[in-house]
Backbone:
C-alpha cells in the first residue's frame, strides 16, 4: 500500500507537471534517441493520446517513411513506427515525393484514412495519395494516387467538420487554393467547395466557435515567409482577405504552417516546420499557441512554453564553466556561444564529461531542461545525460550550422535549492556536442 507521503508526492508531481515545455526550434529527442522525424506533420488525438504523423527526412527529401509518434503531453514523444515505408517501385518507391501526410478517423467505416501529397522528384505529377489503416499508428494499406477532380494538388491538408464531413485542402498551382469535399468514406473527392485564386500553400484549417480559419503560406519554396490566414463562418463563401498573424517580417518566426491543432481546453496551437533546406533531417518544429478572437488571429513568439498555453516558468541558466570537467573535456572556442567559449571534447576515447552539481528546482517533477550547444558536423551528435545518478539517457544534438542550438531533455528533478546533479558524457564512443549552457526551470 502506498504511503501517504508517496501519494502526496505523486499528487504534487502531477500538479507540477507544468514544467514540461515546448521549445520551438530545438532538437526534440524522441524515445528512439533520435530527433523527431515528423516533418510536414499532422496530429490526431485518439482518447487522450496525441499522434504526430509526418515525414521522415533522415536521409533527405526523397520518401523514406511516414512516421508516427505518440504523446500524452505534446512534449515527450514516443516513436511508434511507420504507417508507410518506401517500397521497391511505384508511388512509394525510390526518389519519390510523399509529403504532408494527414490522418482522419472515419466514424462510418471505423477506418483511419491517410492522405498525402504524391509526386515525382521534380514535382511534375502533383497528385494526392490515399491509404487506409485499422489502427491510428499501425501499418496502412496504400490505395493509389490521383489528381483530385483533375486538378493539380501539391501541399495539402485535411479537415473534418463537426458533422463529420471531410475536406481536402489542396494547392492547385494553376488555379489557387482549394477546399474540396470528400466522399462519406473519406476515400475520394466529391466536389469543389471553395477556391481562393491567391497563391497559397501549406494549408491548415480549424473551426473555433462556429467560425473557420484557414492558414497557409506564400510560395517561397523551403524559405519561410509571413504566413497568412483567412476566416469565414461558411466554408463556401465569405472568406476574408488574407492577413498575417505572426509578427510581420518575422517570417512566422522562421517557419511554415503544417497543422493547426485544437486542444480540449479550447487552446489552438500552430504547428510549423522550420525547414533546413541544406540538410532536411535537421529541420525543427515551431509550435506556438494562437490567439483567436473573433475575426482576429495573432501569434506571439515564445522561447518556450507549457502546454496547453502557459508561459514558461522562471529558469536558472548554468554556464558550461560551472561544470566539473573529466577525461578529455576542455574549453573550446565557440563563436555563436554566449561567452565565445564552450566545453568541448565530450565523449571520445578519453570519455570527456561534464558534471553540473547544485542544480536547483523548486518542485519534484518532470521538467524540460534545455541544453544550449554547438555541433559543427553535418550529422547529429549524441550524448548520454545522467540525472541524480540515474542511467544515461541518449540525447540527440542536430547540426547547428555555425550557430548555437538547443536540445531538450525531459527528466525528473528533485525539489531543493541545490539538490540535482546532471552529468553530460559520451555515448557509444562518439563525440558529444560542445556545451554552452543548461537552462533549468525553477518550478
Ligand atoms: C538512411 O540511409 C541508410 C544508409 O543507406 C539506411 O541504412 C537507413 O535505413 C536509411 N534511413 C531511412 C529512415 O530511410
Ligand atoms: C488576444 O487578442 C485579443 C484581440 O485580438 C487581445 O485583446 C488579447 O489581449 C490577446 N490575448 C493575449 C493573451 O495576447
Ligand atoms: C574555461 O573557460 C572558463 C570560462 O571562460 C574559465 O573560467 C576557465 O578558467 C577556463 N578553463 C580553462 C582550463 O582554461
Ligand atoms: C564516462 O564518464 C562518466 C562520467 O564520469 C561515467 O559515468 C562513465 O561511466 C564513463 N564511461 C566510461 C565508458 O568510462
Residues:
Amino acid at each position: 500500500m502506498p504511503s501517504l507521503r508517496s501519494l502526496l508526492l505523486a499528487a504534487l508531481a502531477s500538479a507540477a507537471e507544468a514544467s514540461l515545455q515546448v521549445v520551438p526550434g530545438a532538437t526534440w529527442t524522441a524515445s528512439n534517441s533520435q530527433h523527431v522525424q515528423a516533418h510536414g506533420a499532422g496530429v490526431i488525438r485518439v482518447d487522450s493520446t496525441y499522434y504526430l504523423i509526418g515525414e521522415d527526412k533522415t536521409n533527405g527529401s526523397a520518401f523514406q517513411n511516414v512516421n508516427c509518434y505518440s504523446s500524452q503531453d505534446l512534449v515527450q514523444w514516443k516513436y511508434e513506427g511507420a504507417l508507410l515505408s518506401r517500397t521497391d517501385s511505384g508511388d512509394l518507391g525510390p526518389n519519390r515525393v510523399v509529403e504532408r501526410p494527414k490522418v482522419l478517423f472515419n466514424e462510418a467505416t471505423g477506418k483511419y484514412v491517410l492522405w498525402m501529397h504524391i509526386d515525382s522528384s521534380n514535382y511534375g505529377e502533383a497528385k494526392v495519395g490515399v491509404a487506409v489503416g485499422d489502427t491510428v499508428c499501425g501499418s496502412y494499406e496504400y490505395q493509389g494516387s490521383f489528381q483530385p477532380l483533375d486538378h493539380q494538388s501539391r501541399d495539402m491538408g485535411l479537415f473534418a467538420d463537426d458533422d463529420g464531413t471531410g475536406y481536402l485542402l489542396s494547392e492547385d498551382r494553376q488555379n489557387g487554393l482549394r477546399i474540396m469535399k470528400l466522399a462519406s468514406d473519406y476515400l475520394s473527392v466529391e466536389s469543389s467547395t471553395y477556391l481562393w485564386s491567391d497563391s497559397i500553400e501549406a494549408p491548415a484549417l480549424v473551426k473555433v466557435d462556429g467560425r473557420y480559419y484557414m492558414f497557409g503560406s506564400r510560395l517561397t519554396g523551403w524559405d519561410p515567409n509571413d504566413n497568412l490566414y483567412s476566416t469565414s463562418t461558411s466554408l463556401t463563401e465569405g472568406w476574408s482577405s488574407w492577413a498575417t498573424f505572426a509578427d510581420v517580417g518575422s517570417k512566422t518566426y522562421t517557419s511554415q504552417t503544417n497543422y493547426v491543432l485544437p486542444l480540449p481546453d479550447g487552446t489552438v496551437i500552430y504547428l510549423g516546420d522550420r525547414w533546413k533546406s541544406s540538410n532536411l533531417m535537421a529541420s525543427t518544429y515551431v509550435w506556438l499557441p494562437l490567439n483567436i478572437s473573433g475575426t482576429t488571429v495573432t501569434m506571439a513568439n515564445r522561447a518556450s512554453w507549457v502546454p496547453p498555453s502557459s508561459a514558461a516558468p522562471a529558469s536558472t541558466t548554468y554556464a558550461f564553466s560551472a561544470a566539473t570537467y573529466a577525461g578529455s573535456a576542455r574549453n573550446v572556442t565557440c563563436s555563436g556561444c554566449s561567452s565565445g567559449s564552450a566545453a568541448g571534447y565530450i565523449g571520445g576515447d578519453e570519455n570527456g564529461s561534464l558534471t553540473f552539481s547544485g542544480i536547483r528546482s523548486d518542485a519534484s517533477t518532470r521538467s524540460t531542461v534545455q541544453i544550449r550547444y554547438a555541433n559543427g558536423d553535418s550529422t547529429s551528435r549524441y550524448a548520454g545525460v545522467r540525472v541524480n545518478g540515474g542511467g544515461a539517457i541518449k540525447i540527440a544534438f542536430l547540426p547547428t550550422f555555425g550557430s548555437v542550438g538547443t536540445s531538450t531533455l525531459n527528466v525528473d528533478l528533485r525539489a531543493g535549492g541545490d539538490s540535482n546533479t546532471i552529468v553530460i558524457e559520451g555515448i557509444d564512443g562518439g563525440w558529444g556536442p560542445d556545451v554552452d549552457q543548461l537552462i533549468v526551470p525553477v518550478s
About this structure: The first strand starts at residue 39 and ends at 46. The chain has a mean pLDDT of 95.
